[in-house]
Write a structure and sequence with these properties.
By secondary structure, the chain is mostly helical. The protein is 50% helix and 0% strand. The chain is globular.
Length: 76
């Protein structure tokens, strides 16, 4: 899956306004990105990509680009 395809799907699943998730945006600057959004993202990745992410991994990233890089070769 391409990142450009994943972003709108992720925004929809999290209930974010379109355009909220930008690759270079700092995650800390998105008030909607909270513990529930993190859990939802983990479930989304596990369901979509059969990949298990840990909360510690997500806590270390600062941008959405870094967040998507956790998916490795599962995303383009």
């Amino acid at each position: 899956m391409k990142i450009s395809e994943m972003i709108p799907e992720l925004e929809d699943m999290l209930g974010f306004d379109a355009g909220t998730v930008k690759l270079d945006a700092k995650i800390a600057d998105v008030p909607e990105w909270d513990s529930m959004a993190i859990l939802s993202f983990i479930a989304f990745v596990e369901d979509k990509f059969d990949l298990v992410l840990e909360g510690d991994q997500i806590a270390q990233v600062t941008t959405f680009k870094e967040l998507f890089s956790l998916l490795g070769d599962k995303i383009e």
